[in-house]
Specification:
Blueprint (H helix, E strand, L loop, with lengths): L2 E4 L2 E4 L3 E2 L5 H14 L3 E3 L7 H11 L7 E6 L6 H15 L4 E6 L8 H13 L3 E7 L3 H10 L6 E5 L7 H10 L2 E5 L11 H10 L3 H10 L4 E3 L6 H8 L8 H8 L13
Parallel strand pairs: 3-4, 4-5, 5-6, 6-7, 7-8, 8-9, 9-10
Antiparallel strand pairs: 1-2
Helix pairs in contact: 1-2, 1-9, 2-3, 3-4, 5-6, 7-8
The structure holds NADP nicotinamide-adenine-dinucleotide phosphate.
């Protein structure tokens, strides 16, 4: 496993996304991922699966300290009072004393950004999370959070795959010294259906999904969190460390960049 070492954190570059995983399917997917060697799990208040994620963490027998666990404050929970209260509830559901990363899931404007960031900083001071960060923040919001409001963030979690350029956000993250976590890294099927990516994969005996994940995590300070309910997918997604993409293939994937957003930014 490759790790991203940044701001004192050591983040496994490949994690498991859990959106749409609920009930037994969720706990089984997380447990099997941990068995396969995943040590980075991404959940959120909005996913309604923190209890199942927590159960899987305990059932796996993997020491808590080995797992990088992220959750996110729902867009309606961004006032200081709700951030504090619901973060504590998340910890209870997850059955942990502390998460590794607590994110603002989406900048909803329901509370002033400074108020939410201060609440996150306090939760961190109180040991409820090791690091704080944001998700779905554009360059302007990142600048406001870091430069104007002085937030000490670890990452911005944004949609990122071969068909969506994130050059501007990546440049801003580099400038501020933060990492990027790529969500929807397989474009929810767009990657798997792309013949050019499949062709590149064939050179290495890998699939379109595998070369895409490798392309993502080879980038400086980029992690990826594909979701996989099926064991075969989860196993394939972590089986990406035994080959190296040639420069020409990396360049070919770079050249696919476009404006395809799977997740509606106006949500
Ligand atoms: P994704 O990871 O791009 O795609 C998931 C889909 O790809 C599932 O249908 C999965 O199938 C399939 N798949 C996985 N590995 C595969 C493989 N090797 N070959 C073929 N198919 C494969 O989409 P996503 O769930 O939207 O994104 C991943 C995670 O990002 C989410 O689960 C969530 O944790 C996070 N996310 C965050 C935000 C945010 O606002 N911060 C928004 C969206 C997503 P099976 O499940 O059937 O195995």
């Amino acid at each position: 496993m490759k790790h991203i070492e940044i701001k004192g954190a050591k983040v496994p570059a490949l994690g498991l996304g859990t959106w749409q995983l609920t009930g037994r399917t969720c706990s089984e997917a997380v447990r099997q991922a941990l068995e396969l060697g995943y040590r980075h799990i991404d959940t959120a208040q909005m996913y309604g699966n923190e209890t199942e994620v927590g159960r899987a963490l305990r059932d796996s027998g993997v020491p808590r300290g080995e797992i990088f666990l992220t959750t996110k404050l729902a867009p309606g929970n961004l006032s200081a009072a709700l951030a504090r209260h619901t973060a504590e509830e998340s910890l209870k559901r997850l059955g942990v004393e502390q998460v590794d990363l607590l994110l603002i899931h989406w900048p909803s404007g329901e509370a002033p950004l400074g108020e939410t960031l201060e609440a996150l900083a306090k939760l961190r001071e109180r040991g409820k999370t090791r690091f704080i960060g944001v998700s779905n923040f554009n360059v302007k919001l990142l600048k406001e959070a870091v430069e104007t409001l002085g937030a000490d963030l670890l990452c911005d979690q944004v949609e990122y795959h071969p068909f969506l350029s994130q050059r501007a956000v990546m440049a801003a993250l580099k400038h501020h010294g933060l990492m990027l976590t790529a969500y929807t890294p397989l474009g929810r099927g767009h990657v798997q259906r792309n013949p050019e990516l499949a062709e590149i994969g064939r050179k290495y005996g890998k699939s379109a999904a595998q070369v895409t994940l490798r392309w993502l995590i080879d980038q400086e300070n980029v992690a990826a969190i594909p979701k996989a309910a099926s064991r075969a997918h989860a196993a394939a997604n972590i089986d990406i460390f035994d080959f190296t993409l040639a420069d020409e293939d990396r360049a070919a994937i770079d050249a696919m960049r476009g404006n395809l957003r799977v997740v509606d930014p106006g949500w």
